[in-house]
Specification:
This protein is of the alpha/beta class. It has 6 helices and 9 strands, in the order αββαβααββαβαβββ.
Length: 189
């Protein structure tokens, strides 16, 4: 896996895109700080730039770095006790460029525990853009075999399927949103 992580990192640092396993479904990703790469993913998917992507981070310290604060103990407990991967839409983030946020300044972030992602995020030391590996409007693929060959052609590097592990659930993440007052709303359970 070390060589695959190095290859993916090289592509990401060159402002390229990757197709990779996550703790939910296979995703298309790039470095969150490179607008050119994010624009390329919008084009590959045929998706409107008004519909932002989520970001994956390695752990709570990395999350805190890009939020500019540490989430409340209640939120951290909720994330730790969740039975499935949970993406949280935070009302504000720091150290994240505007092009990687929603128009209202919010940003969806998930701590990804999948082995490949953990190793890549550790080397990147920055968030990884993540979006389902499908064309906009189509169903999310439940496994690698279900990813469209036409979609794969637009990607700069495809992580070999053997790098998916038992933490790759094949189901989209739970999504919750925190508003300005700290209230929590379930968007997708």
């Amino acid at each position: 896996m070390k060589n695959v992580v190095a290859q993916a990192l090289s592509i990401i640092e060159a402002k390229g895109t990757i197709l990779y396993p996550t703790d939910t479904i296979w995703g298309i990703g790039c470095h969150a700080m490179y607008e050119e790469a994010i624009t390329k993913i919008f084009a590959i998917k045929g998706r409107s730039s008004s519909n932002p992507f989520i970001l994956l981070v390695r752990d709570v310290p990395m999350l805190s770095k890009f939020l500019g604060y540490t989430p409340s103990p209640e939120m951290l407990t909720m994330l730790e006790q969740s039975q499935r991967p949970t993406t949280v839409i935070y009302p504000h983030a720091q150290n994240i460029p505007a092009f990687a946020k929603a128009t209202d300044g919010s940003v969806g972030i998930r701590i990804c525990r999948q082995t490949f992602c953990q190793k890549l995020l550790q080397k990147m030391n920055a968030p990884l853009v993540s979006t389902s590996a499908n064309f906009s409007g189509e169903a999310s693929p439940q496994n690698f075999a279900a990813i469209s060959p036409a979609l794969k052609q637009g990607i700069d590097f495809i992580v070999p399927e053997k790098n998916a592990d038992s933490s790759s659930a094949g189901v989209a993440s739970r999504i919750i949103k925190i508003n300005e007052n700290g209230e929590i709303f379930i968007i997708r359970d």
